[in-house]
Amino acid sequence: MLSPNFIEIDQIDFEIFLCILTILPCRKVRLPIAPVTLDFKGPGLFGPETGLGMPTCLLCVCMGGSVYCDDTSLEQIPPLPKDTTHFYGRFNKIQHVKNTDFINLNKLKTIDLTGNQISEMDEDAFRLLPQLQELLLADNNLQALPELPNTMRHIDARNNRLLSSGVHPEGFKDMSQLEFLYLSNNKLDYIPTPLPESLRALHLQNNNIQHLHEGTFCNRHNRNYIRRNLEDIRLDGNPLDINLFAQAYICLQRLPVGGN
What does the pLDDT look like over 193-216, one tens digit per residue? Predict the structure, then answer.
């Protein structure tokens, strides 16, 4: 067993290794004979977290408030420094996002978990993040979305298995800053309404949407209403004939790309 004065490092690029040496208060460094075993059960990936969040930053790349853990074979969300603003955990093996994974990360604005194996998310996994704006969950195995904060600007859940029953009723209604909503290549039966006025792009191609109604995009109580921001609507690849629902588009400045 190595003494506390040694740190074992496995397959770290020499330049990164030198960089680490300028940060860690190590007296000696010995290259390992056997690879390091990561322990996700403890408070940090390489032991207790420090004030600098160094345990996670040995495995991932930490730059300012951004933490990059792409393609590192993660099976769980790692402990993140408290000042993290952007987290990228793309192309890993994460299956479950727990309600404790992002707890107390009050500066977190972006979470990108594209290309994992996520099939389950706890209901409060994201809801209590006060500054979250961008949530990217494309290319996973999700059947449902948890409740999200009203601060969202960009939601990308393409290429999942989302069901209409797995999307909260009126779940996007109060997201007054939401601009981009990408839900293509799922199993949705209808458009999740009402949609916020801020929305600029809505991608729903390759779902199972068959019907629209007068209030899907427009205000059925105000014939003079014009939805000015929403100019990018994709409905192609659905069993839907958009020509049968002309009243649904009367308020739009640009018609949807549509239908079967």
Answer: 999 999 999 999 999 999 999 899
CB 138 within 8 A of CB 161: no
CA dist., res. 130 & res. 121, Å (int): 18
CA distance 63 to 186: 34
The answer to whether 218 touches 199, Cβ cutoff 8 Å, is: no
Helix (H) / strand (E) containing 97: strand 96-97
Summarize pLDDT for 159-178 with one digit per residue, the tens. Answer: 999 999 999 989 999 999 99
Tell me the pLDDT tens digit for each residue of 26-37: 444 443 433 333
Can you say whether the dihedral through the CA atoms of 142, 144, 148, 152 is positive or negative? positive
Smallest Cα–Cα separation from 139: which of 93, 178, 181, 172? 93
